[in-house]
Amino acid sequence: QVQLVESGGGLVQAGGSVRLSCAASGRTFSTYYMAWFRQAPGKEREYVAAISWSGGTTYADAVKGRFTISRDNAKNTVYLQMNSLKPEDTAVYFCAAGGIATTRGHPEYWGQGTQVTVSS
């Protein structure tokens, strides 16, 4: 069993930056794909970014060039650095973990989510 706890959300002005963290329990963190998803009010949950156990990354087109996903296996933590934020980035951001299916929206584990609100 893996537990994921997100932190770092909050209110930020458009053009600003926020870094989200996701701390994972369990000794097998380094073997998991880790990903971030988000869900805006009235919309379906959508994929944001993922990182493999070896550090390979993928991004949704909407965030490419603005967001950076990274991981620290020694700390069992994955990060999402979000720059040049836009009001449309406002959402609850969820951390996820699992096999390669994680990158297709089918992780084994979900965090509880953290709210990011971008004001215009």
The computed structural class is mainly beta
Residue windows where pLDDT falls under 50 for at least 5 positions: none
Number of helices: 0
Q: Share of helix among residues?
A: under 10%
Please tell me how large the radius of gyration is. 13 Å
User: How many angstroms separate the termini?
Assistant: 40 Å
**Based on DSSP secondary structure assignment, what is the total number of beta strands?**
11
Question: Hey, roughly how much beta strand do the residues contain?
Answer: over 45%
Gross morphology is globular
Mean pLDDT: 95
Question: What does it look like?
Answer:
By secondary structure, this protein is mainly β. It is built from no helices and 11 strands. The strands form 2 sheets. Strands 2, 4, 5, 6, 9, 10 and 11 form a 7-stranded mixed sheet that branches. A 4-stranded antiparallel sheet has the order 1-3-8-7, with no helix packed on it.
In short:
By secondary structure, the protein is an all-beta fold. Helix content is 0%, strand content 49%.
